[in-house]
Design brief:
The protein is α/β, with parallel strands linked by helices. The chain has one domain: Rossmann fold. Helices cover about 35% and strands about 15% of the residues. It has helices spanning about 25-35, 50-65, 95-110, 115-125, 155-160, 190-200, 220-229; strands at about 40-45, 70-75, 125-130, 145, 170-175, 205-210. It has a 6-stranded parallel sheet, with helices on both faces. Helix 2 (about 50-65) packs across helix 3 (about 95-110).
Length: about 230
Amino acid sequence: MVKRREKSKEPKSKLKREIKIEPRTDGQSAYIDLIESQDIIICNGKAGTGKTLLAVGMALKLLRERPDKYRRIVMVRPAITVQGEELGFLPGDIDDKMRPFMMPMLDSLKYFIMNSDVISLMELGIIEVSTISHMRGRTFNNCIIIFDEAQNSTTSQMKMVVTRIGFNTKLIIEGDITQSDLESKEIENNGLYDAMVRFKDIEGVSVCSLGSKDVVRSPILNRIIETYD
């Protein structure tokens, strides 16, 4: 009698397509290494340095390669507008109002996987895109959290996000401290800056920076950024 082969109990990833990450600068390579090895990664990077794209790519890669440890990706960002534009003045219902805040993260997902896969993974709850206000009271286990545009968070909001992490959870905090849209311009009240200072000597936490040498968009962008420095 032929013995039935038992099905593997190892969890399988919902991502079939291999995720390839190719750093273009030494700074990007160091950032990727930290995401691989650390529990909490804080990255302060200028526009065009790939801080969000690399975080999303690495999250997808780890989700695919380590389904035993990571089962979800949660992408969160502050619901704050440029130059103080209020949500109430944006057209449509609440979903329409929130869509502009979510699009940058969705665009990063679509860089690595097809739009149909993004929709499918979101419907399954494997990928969640949210704002800070929806994080309160939750605990995330077996999860990779990406906190995007963290320079637009207050210290209390940063504390709330950081304290959501549970077991087998990796938190990637990234933003550009020079592009904060908070009403308070006091640097000590900025969640990203506060976290960079407060957590820098904690085991399992690494802080890194991506500068003008790591800009990988149009060559003219680097020259433009230098005029603001």
